[in-house]
Design goal:
By secondary structure, this protein is mainly alpha-helical. It has one domain. The chain contains 5 helices and no strands. α2 packs antiparallel against α3 and α3 packs across α4. It is elongated and about 50 Å long. The relative contact order is 0.12.
């Protein structure tokens, strides 16, 4: 994750050292802890605050980098998950049924 932060920051000409990417990662953890759908908003604001406050990035560049970083870190993992689900023969409907059974078993305890 830190490498992704560092590379995206470099792509947007935000002067973040590799060690500095760990600071941003810490802020991102706090940002995604805020309950929002898909971590949209909290993630971006945490990155923007960190990049502008600690690395003096222009606001517009920091926001653009946050959007790209979120896509770069979310989309590949999601696509890989879909591929692995298909390999295991899982569908969303089957996963819902399995989750329903698991919830019923928890209620019976």
């Amino acid at each position: 994750m830190a490498a992704g932060i560092w590379l995206v920051s470099r792509a947007f000409a935000i002067e973040v050292t590799y060690l500095g990417s760990f600071l941003l990662m810490t802020l991102l953890v706090v940002g995604v802890a805020v309950p929002t759908p898909g971590a949209v908003g909290g993630f971006h604001e945490a990155f923007r605050i960190g990049a502008t406050t600690f690395f003096h990035a222009p606001n517009d560049r920091a926001i653009g980098a946050a959007i790209v970083l979120h896509a770069v870190s979310f989309v590949p993992v999601t696509l890989m998950g879909i591929v692995f689900m298909a390999q295991e023969g899982l569908t969303l409907g089957r996963m819902r049924r399995l989750a329903g059974r698991s919830g019923a078993e928890e209620g019976a305890r």
